[in-house]
Amino acid sequence: ANADWNPLTTGAEKEWNAAACPSPRVCYFTAGIYASGGTGALRKTEDGGDTFALLPLPTSDPLEAISCPSETVCYATGGYGVVLKTLDGGKNWTEVRLGGKASPPQFKAIAALDDLRVIVAGKDGALYRSEDGGASWGRPSVRSVSDFFAIHFLDASVGLLAGGDGTLIRTEDGGASWAIQKPVADIGAIVSLRGKGSTLYAAGEKFIVKSTDWGKSWTRQDTGLAQRFRNLFALDEKQIYLASDMGLLRTTNGGSEWTTDFTPQSGFVRGVVC
């Protein structure tokens, strides 16, 4: 399977950790690790990875998540309460800072529902929401101080927020209000949520779970490999890619069987977008 994957050169030795592809050949990549002090960076490809452009940024803070509702509109977020926005495909970015200067939030996840509505979440229960493209921000009540790592929306209204100790919080009004759901037991931190239709997958630090009723109940999926999972992507209800410290796993039958699709020669896979 490794023969189907080709390494690409971005022109920068960076810890790339998240990607957003608003169309098949246009993708944005963020870099920077908060814990190690890695500086932030953004790269963009418009030709499916043949070439990469360095995007100018107003900050050097690490960027750990990105969401692009279109090829030209993107939101990125990361350490020190930073949220970036572009309206012209990455040529120019505006910056806002959320939270207090003494203890700014560390954001780990972002979801842009459209050009104007965006939600960012992170450590210690940090959650912010904007309905005007980032001009103003509110703080929905979540009644939780869990570390949030993943956001996924079924549609413009229904979404899930996930984090430490299997925490799950649900919204049915586009993120204006949230209700705590029963957590996923023994999974550790939920680091990624993805799905198609009513089928949803969640990647935890210890194992994978699957829901066929969009997060109301879960069943454990056995990959057959003990490794730290980091990110997943659902092509449809049965074809799933799973990023881990050991490489990239794939299932074509809804999680009944998993195979290793790619093993990096060094480092590990942090994200996958299809």
Keywords:
single chain; 274 residues; mainly beta; four-stranded antiparallel sheet
Multimeric status of the protein: single chain
Name the strands of the widest sheet in spatial order.
1-2-3-4
| Cα gyration radius (Å) | 18 Å
Tell me the span between the first and last alpha carbons. Answer: 17 Å
Q: Count up the helices.
A: 0
Tell me what portion of residues adopts beta-strand conformation: 35-45%
How many E strands? Answer: 23
Order of H and E elements: EEEEEEEEEEEEEEEEEEEEEEE
Low-confidence stretches: none
Shape: globular
What is the arithmetic mean of pLDDT? 92
- Largest sheet, described in full? 4 strands, antiparallel
Topology summary:
Blueprint (H helix, E strand, L loop, with lengths): L15 E8 L2 E6 L9 E5 L7 E2 L8 E5 L6 E5 L3 E5 L7 E4 L9 E6 L5 E5 L4 E4 L17 E6 L5 E5 L4 E4 L7 E2 L9 E7 L2 E6 L3 E4 L7 E3 L7 E6 L5 E5 L2 E5 L7 E4 L12
Antiparallel strand pairs: 1-2, 2-3, 3-4, 5-6, 6-7, 7-8, 9-10, 10-11, 12-13, 13-14, 14-15, 16-17, 17-18, 18-19, 20-21, 21-22, 22-23
Explain this structure.
The protein is mainly beta and 274 residues long. The protein has no helices and 23 strands. The chain has strands at 16-23, 26-31, 41-45, 53-54, 63-67, 74-78, 82-86, 94-97, 107-112, 118-122, 127-130, 148-153, 159-163, 168-171, 179-180, 190-196, 199-204, 208-211, 219-221, 229-234, 240-244, 247-251, 259-262. The protein has a 4-stranded antiparallel beta sheet with strand order 1-2-3-4, with no helix packed on it. A 4-stranded antiparallel beta sheet has the order 5-6-7-8, with no helix packed on it. The chain has a 4-stranded antiparallel beta sheet with strand order 12-13-14-15, with no helix packed on it. The two termini are 17 Å apart. The mean pLDDT is 92.
